[in-house]
Amino acid sequence: MAITNWPISERPREKLLQKGASTLSDTELLAIFLRTGISGKSAVDLARELLLHFGSLTNVFAASQSNFCQLPGMGIAKYAQLQAVLEMARRTLDEELRCGNAMNSPKLVRDFLRLSLANKQHEVFIGIFLDAKNHAIATEELFSGTLTQASVYPREIIKRALYHNAAAIIFAHNHPSGIAEPSHADKVLTQSLKQALSLVDVKVLDHFIIGNGTALSFAEHDLI
After folding, report:
1. In a 10 Å sphere around its CB, with 0-12 CB exposed, 13-18 middle and 19+ buried, how is residue 164 labelled?
2. Mean pLDDT lowest for which of 91-105, 108-122, 123-137?
3. pTM (whole model) above 0.85
4. Which residues of 25-59 are buried (b: 16+ CB within 10 A; e: fewer)?
5. Is the pLDDT assigned to residue 153 strictly greater than 90?
6. pLDDT-derived band of residue 99, with 50, 70 and 90 as boundaries?
7. Number of domains observed in the structure of the chain
8. CA of residue 86 relative to chain centroid, distance
9. What's the domain range around 28?
10. Average pLDDT value for residue range 193-222
11. Where does the MPN domain lie (predicted)?
């Protein structure tokens, strides 16, 4: 049955307008994003199939173009829309980081980093450069590598920190495996960066590892 034939109170869009977006299920939210279905399937049916195929809303947003577009009813246009939604959300969080104290908003930092790194197919190392009040000055992708590792050079990071006149920095990198657990190399690298940046009076406040829908904080685990 087409959604237009549903009771008004059960239609996702009308439900959102009446009760708010937080009351909708993942399937209903995806259905609003998809807007239309295909022959024999409503937008809700397609949304349900997307979630079943990828396993979670996070995995839908992290899907590659080829994996997303191979499903019935999906295509380049919807994939482009999906990426636009992600980028708008990331930029909104970036604006909030620039206006507020990053250390007082751990959830904001986590959400920003997850949106920035969760869908990367190779390892990427980024830095959030902060001023003396812990407001974000800039976020940069500092290094990128293969599926398993990225080469990180402390000297280059020091140059970027001095360029931004940063007082502190938060590091983050993703694990394409999806497992947000620090390796021995991650711990050694973090300490090396902390020591190197201390020579130019730049504090390393945290280092996050981004996995599949999760973000591990070195600071919260006393690893920094």
Report:
1. middle
2. 91-105
3. no
4. eebbbbbbbbeebeeeebbbbbbbbbbeebeebbb
5. no
6. confident
7. 2
8. 8
9. 7-74
10. 91
11. 102-224
